[in-house]
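Re: duplicated header lines in exported structure tokens

Our pipeline writes sequence and tokens for each protein into one text file. With two proteins the header for the second block appears twice in some exports. Here is an export where it did not happen, for reference. First protein block:
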Amino acid sequence: MSGNFRGNWSSTSNSTAANPTTEKDNSDRSNRYKIKQHKSEIDQPAQSIKPRPEIHDYDRICRVDPITRQQVNGFGRLVIDRVNDGWSCHLMTFPFVQFPGPRGAVIQAMKGELQRVYSTFVTRTHRKPRTTPSDELPVLIGAADLQVYKKDPTSSPLVLCNGGLHFHGLLMVPPDTRLAIPVDEHFSDYQEMYVGKRRLITKLDVRRVTETHELAVDYVFKTILRGRVSYDDGVLVLPRTRDELGPGGEGDPIARSRFYSGKNLISRGPAPTQSRGLI
């Protein structure tokens, strides 16, 4: 992490006037020590995981469930581990057209579209995704979100349909893939293909995350953390089964067996199937 220190100390006081040389030397040494100490703090590696006071305050104000926070922190560790291994991280926004039915049915329909986008993308990154080791495949972490007031309305697409309900996702892509261009450029060039023939997704927005990955995870899960959508209903992690890696699977992909669980996100292998963190 890098940063610019901006301090404003005053070395003028009544005692300084009485002993200008001694007090000035002491003040200079104190200031140099504080500047050195500050630089040592801001120059720590960006990917180190440390408790942040602002997260504690946010959880207290929004009354975040401790178990949900633990699960979200697990996703944060997963993202940082992959980034440290050379993977790229991308923030995806999925706004949709208006869906009929109750919220549960709408969320399931949105998850189906995320599944379609992932299944299409994974065939562009790996020639044979079904035979590729699971820990070498892209990972998509999706979470339902609700539109909130923003001081800067251009920071993310405005969502007007479905009561502001949409999905955010973090797409983790390994360094060795078939893609010849950056991931965000790929989605921009093939926007029509990913939007799909039915155009249930109005526009797919993809932006690379180059720093503050923990904050990006909290942003994606902000509605889940606030309890406005339950964790079990609003979270989707892909891939979960081999059948979801491309055409040919049978049945509803949303109802198939799970691949990851919220309590086992650090490991690269399949997780136990009995956990509150199941998607």
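Second protein block, exported in the same file:
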Amino acid sequence: MTSDEIQFWTMIGTWVASFGTIAAVITSLFFAYNQNKVKLRITVGHRQIVSSGTEGTPDYCIIKVVNLSNKPAKIESIGWQAGFWRSKTSMIQLFGIPGFDDIPKVLTEGQDATFAVPFRLNGGKDDWIIRFPKSVTETSSLNIHSLKLWVHIAQGQTFIAKPEKGLIDQLKRSLQS
């Protein structure tokens, strides 16, 4: 090997080592930044509750939140948003159904919480399934497809989830009737 070839391969080795060092620094910064973040998995959909002590199968909007991180998460509020940019509207959802979780709720690593909103409570026009879709479409002048659920935690993070198709279909049916 000539001295020019040795210098060339030395230069290539220096470049490869530099790229490796930069990649290691970026990877460690990424892990350090994301280590302190809470990760939640949120599902929201239409469910029917079947139990032996009740008659019929009542309909509910069920919100399930699972803490996927190793840090505790304190859920402070849950709500809905509809619309885009300037026409976006937000609404806070209230709970308090016996047998389900309520806010505030602290979730440790791997823990989950299930929040429920009954579709029908009194059987009138004040029921959630009748009142809620109307309030969404009246205030945002958009269709029900822009609806999203948000979960806000004490650490300052807000998580957004799209409702399942079954819940969207129920809300659309309620609007049409």
